[in-house]
């Protein structure tokens, strides 16, 4: 990962170092997610990486029902970050059914499927 | 504005096979049986087919696999994979290929044995890299989140979602081909096992085996076949995303665009449509598509379907075979929207046959509300 070059590799390397970086287009100024070699809004190819504010809101949410033996129910949701991008994630620290649309959440780097991943927790009021 | 392709092609045969459980058969066996059934319906033979339009769940070269299995050497193939909408999309490419003389007999075909093979959705599709770590259940979590957002923005209720399933079952109860024909109430749907909030297992389509096929020819020879021809008056597609996280507004699908263009191509409006066949993978789909296709305003879909308004005897006949919720859902349902629309127009629907149907709509959905394809079909009277 030391010589990471592609957008996905750069995002994952930052995540492994505990940082959430978001791609931002130098031409139109808009953020996008997932990382890619061009801006999906204006199709420019000059992309910079910016530290995410981590501030977001739940756009929509569901509880994936799973038997207790297999680990129980869990949350899957869509979070809209202040930067204007949306990502799939889950909110931790509260029951999966307590995650609500419009809830203010804060990102942190946790683990999903044994790999570093962007997760969220309810924001401190 | 109508297009040059309006009425240039016609469906002259439909067929299906393996509905429910096709024990001991492979997906390609069911595909081939469906092809034979449709060709028999049209009075044609496999050797007449020179255009093949096919995709399957388990392969990346399904059109080649299907042609090889069928023992044909088509001069035109289309295996575009946009999920369950693919088969509605093939109406466009088949019409274009027929009109251009690139083929003379187009066979659109699909088959699946997912119920008896695995009991769950079979797919060669890879999980999206930026979603997979969160373990969404594919595809239900995506539709559950669309339903949750629709409920949040428009006050749509779980009861209204349930009424979609109840209406589908009411149609299915009259259809001997339907897989689920037992009674189903709103309370049954609400009280069923929750699988992805707010959707219970009864808000979800069936997991069945089954295949379907459609035979198409140019309009100039469409009246030379045993069954009344069903003309493709307009068909249009719009693709908005692949992964659910990339869908801009979870309450508005690209059916708004595909529908508007299909209606314009056919030169008709939603008020003219007598039978509506929608890809109802989940109860929220029916509500979204009724709104986006213009049968009601955005946000009013819940009220539109409430209390039997799309059930037999209601204000608009929707999914008259019982849909993917109660009739058949072998991984991809799209082809069955076209088959049921065509049969309603021909007058040989397997369940409730509506009276004097000249115009019907078939709408396919693919991926996770990703690909939307709308087709308007009409009888000889609509040319």
Automatic annotation (TrEMBL), chain A:
Report the SUPFAM superfamilies cross-referenced here: Nucleic acid-binding proteins
Which InterPro entries does UniProt cross-reference here? ChsH2_C, ChsH2_Znr, NA-bd_OB-fold, Thioester_dehydratase-like
Q: Coiled coil located at which positions?
A: none
User: Residue ranges of the ChsH2 rubredoxin-like zinc ribbon domain?
Assistant: 14-46
Residue ranges of domain ChsH2 C-terminal OB-fold in the record: 49-107
Pfam families for this protein:
OB_ChsH2_C, zf-ChsH2
Fetch the PANTHER family from UniProt: BLR3430 PROTEIN
Question: What is this protein identified as?
Answer: DNA-binding protein
Automatic annotation (TrEMBL), chain B:
Alphabetized CDD domains for the sequence: SCP-x_thiolase (cd00829)
**Domain of life of the organism encoding this protein:** Bacteria
Give the signal sequence positions. none
Gene Ontology MF terms in the entry:
acetyl-CoA C-acyltransferase activity
Coiled-coil zones = none
Please report the stretch or stretches of sequence annotated as the Thiolase C-terminal domain. 237-378
UniProt cross-references to InterPro entries, sorted A to Z? Thiolase, Thiolase-like, Thiolase_C_2
Protein name, as recorded:
Thiolase
Taxonomic lineage of the native organism: Bacteria, Pseudomonadati, Pseudomonadota, Alphaproteobacteria, Rhodobacterales
């Amino acid at each position: 990962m030391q010589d990471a070059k592609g957008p996905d590799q750069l995002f994952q390397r930052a995540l492994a170092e505990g940082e959430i970086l978001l791609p931002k287009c130098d031409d139109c100024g808009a953020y996008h997610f997932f990382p890619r070699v061009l801006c999906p809004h204006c199709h420019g190819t000059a992309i910079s990486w910016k530290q995410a504010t981590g501030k977001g809101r739940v756009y929509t949410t569901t509880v994936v029902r799973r038997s207790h033996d297999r680990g129980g129910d869990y949350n899957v949701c869509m979070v809209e970050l202040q930067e204007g991008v949306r990502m799939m994630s889950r909110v931790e620290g509260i029951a999966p059914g307590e995650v609500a649309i419009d809830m203010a959440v804060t990102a942190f780097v946790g683990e999903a499927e044994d790999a570093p991943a962007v997760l969220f927790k309810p924001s401190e009021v | 504005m109508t297009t040059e392709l309006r009425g240039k092609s016609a469906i002259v045969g439909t067929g299906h096979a393996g509905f429910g459980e096709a024990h001991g058969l492979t997906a390609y066996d069911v595909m081939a049986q469906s092809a034979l059934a449709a060709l028999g319906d049209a009075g044609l033979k496999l050797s007449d087919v020179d255009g093949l339009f096919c995709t399957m769940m388990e392969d990346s070269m399904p059109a080649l696999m299907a042609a090889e299995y069928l023992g044909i050497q088509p001069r035109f193939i289309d295996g575009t994979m946009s999920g369950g909408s693919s088969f509605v999309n093939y109406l466009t490419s088949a019409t274009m290929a027929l009109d251009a003389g690139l083929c003379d007999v187009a066979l659109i075909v699909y088959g699946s044995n997912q119920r008896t093979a695995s009991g769950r959705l079979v797919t060669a599709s890879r999980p999206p890299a930026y979603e997979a770590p969160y373990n969404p259940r594919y595809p239900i979590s995506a539709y559950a989140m669309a339903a949750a957002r629709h409920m949040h923005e428009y006050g749509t209720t779980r009861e209204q979602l349930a009424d979609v399933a109840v209406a589908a079952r009411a149609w299915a109860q009259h259809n001997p081909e339907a897989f689920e024909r037992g009674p189903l109430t709103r309370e049954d749907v609400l009280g069923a096992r929750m699988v992805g909030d707010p959707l219970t297992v009864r808000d979800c389509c069936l997991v069945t085996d089954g295949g379907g096929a459609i035979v198409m020819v140019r309009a100039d020879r469409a009246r030379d076949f045993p069954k009344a021809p069903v003309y493709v008056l307009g068909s249009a597609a719009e693709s908005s995303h692949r992964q659910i996280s990339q869908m801009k507004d979870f309450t508005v699908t690209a059916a708004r665009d595909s529908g508007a263009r299909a209606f314009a191509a056919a030169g008709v409006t939603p008020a003219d449509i007598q039978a509506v066949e929608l890809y109802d993978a989940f109860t929220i789909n029916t509500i979204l598509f009724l709104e986006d296709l213009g049968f009601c305003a955005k946000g009013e879909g819940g009220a539109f379907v409430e209390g039997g308004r799309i059930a037999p005897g209601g204000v608009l006949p929707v999914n008259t075979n019982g849909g993917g919720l109660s009739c058949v859902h072998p991984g991809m349902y799209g082809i069955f929207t076209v088959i049921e629309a065509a049969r309603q127009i021909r007058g040989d629907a397997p369940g409730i046959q509506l009276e004097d149907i000249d115009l019907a709509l078939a709408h396919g959905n693919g991926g996770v509300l990703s690909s939307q394809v709308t087709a308007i079909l009409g009888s000889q009277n609509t040319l």
